[in-house]
Amino acid sequence: MNRTYILASALFIGVLASFFLAMMIGIEHYTFQTVLNSLMHPYANDSVTQTLMEIRLPRILVAFLVGMMISVAGLIMQTVTHNDLSEPSILGVNAGSNLMIVLVVVLVPTITFVGLVVSGFIGGSLVGLVILMMTRHNSPVKLVLAGSGISLLLLAITNFIVITNGLGQFAMFFTSGGAAGQTMSNVLIVTPVASVLILILILMSRELDVLLLSDDVAHSIGQNQRIYKLVSLFIAIFLAAISVALVGNIIFLGMLVPHMVKMIVGHLHKKALIFTAILGGVFFVLADMFARMFSEMPVNAVIAMIGLPFFIYIIRRRGHTYA
User: TM segments (predicted)?
Assistant: First the structure.
């Protein structure tokens, strides 16, 4: 059997397994049969079905969407910047979105979810562009240092605004990450937007593959790099901003998953985008499930326990490149 079909089958099984595990496991555990019965009779008038369908199901679906969006955003940022360490949190996009959302919440407390997404996109775009202009795409180390420094500064400003305005719980949500408190309306708003944006990137796969080459080579075969870089970066920042508006600041996921996928299926974007989206979704669903198992521990802590060793591995493996 073709290797791609084997991997696709494994991912499909992984999606189903992670979905049912996440439905079954949490502060309250349920059997597979109970979950199956609730899915087959979603409007049954009993407390277990209501808990599964109104609380746990929206949370799992949002976790899958966020995993998809953050991971795909990381893959695109690595391609556009020619930098293996790029991801939304490293580029300051998450911190910029976070700060802008907190500002808007303070100034306009009745703002809608769509308003939060637009605000997050504006904040993330501004910070991401500033960091890219500062580092000029040419130094992975400068990118990490600039991104980390500016992100810490923005986090300090965000915390100041939160403390002075009595938004402690809001701050905890954005710093720890997590898909608690989601509703099906969020799922219905985000699903078509995320699907269309990722589909556009898949349709641009050939152009994104050319972006992997040097600027001179891409220019020699007639590609208008500026247009494709702007469009793909716009989509990546938008995906990251939606994720921040949904679950707060998520770290490492946008770097971790694309690297895992590129090790398995290579760098060509048609496969890499699809596998990154699905594996990212599965990864975040499982990370959120583990966070839920331990009394809602920060999901970023779960991701960091896996992501930090991987980050060190990348630095050791590619250290000569970054030196």
Answer: 6-27, 60-80, 100-131, 143-163, 183-204, 230-252, 272-291, 298-315
C-alpha atoms less than 13 angstroms from C-alpha of 234 in its C-beta half-sphere: 8
Largest Cα separation within the chain, whole Å, is: 65
pLDDT value of position 285: 94
Contact criterion met (CB below 8 Å) for 204 and 233: no
How does DSSP assign 246-262, residue by residue? HH----SHHHHHHHHHH
> For residue 165, how many other CB atoms are within 10 A of its CB?
15
Could you tell me how far CA 100 lies from the centroid of its own chain? Answer: 18
Distance CA 266, CA 313 (A): 18
Q: What are the angstrom distances between the C-alpha of 135 and each of 83, 141, 235, 312?
A: 11, 9, 21, 22
- In terms of Cβ atoms closer than 10 Å to its own Cβ (0-12, 13-18, 19+), residue 99 is buried
Q: In this structure, which amino acid lies at residue 75?
A: L
pLDDT of 245: 83
Q: Exposed/middle/buried for 163, CB within 10 Å: 0-12, 13-18, 19+?
A: exposed
